[in-house]
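Q: Hi! First time doing this. I have a protein sequence and I read that you can turn it into a structure. Is that right? Here it is:
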Amino acid sequence: MADTVKTATQLSVFLVNKPGVLAQVTRALAQAKQNIVAMTLVDSQEHGVLRMVIENAAEAKAVLAKLTLPMTETEVVCLEMSNRPGALADVATLLGENHININYAYVTSGAPGGRTTGVFKVADLTKAQHVLKKSAAKHKEPNLGKSGGRRR
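A: Yes, that's right. Below is the predicted 3D structure, encoded as structure tokens:
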């Protein structure tokens, strides 16, 4: 079922809900060459909570501290799973059968050719599609701009 199980430090960053804040955080991490292994962003009316597992949590924490955003640390279990239907169900069943509650979970998703998929909830879907298609054409990205229609 799994190739690797390890614990990792998850950083939870509390973000104001306004345009550009997520970009500021991810740009700072990128400039410091910090790779995000997995992430999820949950929002409420007042703020968003960005939960991330980063390859080097200590260095990432130092980068994020410079942004003066509220942040917490939590130890989590990281489990390498097969990218197949039912893999998550197998893990959840195993934990449940052993009376281990899952408070929350998020996963990355592998794609053919070693690519990953980013899913973005945006306020203006039509505009986002236009911008992404234009960028794909400009940068010759083979998998952008060829959806053939609206995805839901």
